Amino acid sequence: MTAQVGVTEGVELPHRVADPRPDAARALAELWIAVTEAGGAVDFVPGWDPEEIRDLAVATVDEVRTGGARMLVLGDDTDPVGTVFVVPGTGIAAHRADVQRLMVHPGAQGRGIGTTLLEAAVAEARDMGVEMVTLGARGGTPLPGFYAARGFVEYGRLPGGVRLSPDDARDVHLFHRVLRPSPGWAG
Ligand SMILES: CC(C)(COP(=O)(O)OP(=O)(O)OC[C@H]1O[C@@H](n2cnc3c(N)ncnc32)[C@H](O)[C@@H]1OP(=O)(O)O)[C@@H](O)C(=O)NCCC(=O)NCCS
């Protein structure tokens, strides 16, 4: 079952998948493998064992089913054009949420869909009542610039935080975007 956020005449908008259908993990894996093989920067590199990607897709959709993450898709959850996940913090981090695994099918990139999904994720986080969203972006790609151009502020870097191969480690650029002032922030 899907919870429709909204459809403007002729223009499909991302919607939240509240209850992923049985085929959703397979569909997410297909998208993720295609994005990875095209050079996308979502947990893997081209040539990665597709079984590992499928396993992570199953775990990711299970997180959605158990309420540990919210999934937004453009298109059908069994045939998505793009997707993004919003993972709420817990305990003393419950006032923030992490945006993860933003991906658009390689055949549909560069048409504004990624920007729309990112804004939908921010709107979802706002609806959840959190004060800020965070995300990490792989260095040496256009991604840090993509997020910086969309209201995210880089607050640090994890040097060599992801290893793409024995001789290629990249920084993870850490971003946040404040949604509303944090009461009682003492720094
Ligand atoms: C990054 C991504 C989600 C952007 O979605 P999109 O629909 O292609 O982007 P839009 O059309 O909304 O915006 C175009 C912007 O994306 C950038 N972009 C386009 N293709 C890209 C790609 N393959 N990788 C990174 N950035 C890309 C362009 O430089 C452009 O940036 P600018 O407007 O600041 O100049 C999409 O390209 C993608 O799925 N990439 C592979 C997966 C990935 O790396 N995800 C990021 C996880 S942190």
UniProtKB/TrEMBL annotation:
It comes from the Bacteria. Residues 33-181 form the N-acetyltransferase domain. CDD domains: NAT_SF (cd04301). Keywords: Acyltransferase, Transferase. This is GNAT family N-acetyltransferase. Pfam families: Acetyltransf_1 (PF00583). PANTHER family: ACETYLTRANSFERASE, AMINOALKYLPHOSPHONATE N-ACETYLTRANSFERASE-RELATED-RELATED. Gene3D superfamilies: 3.40.630.30. PROSITE patterns: GNAT (PS51186). InterPro entries: Acyl_CoA_acyltransferase, Bact_Acetyltransf, GNAT_dom.
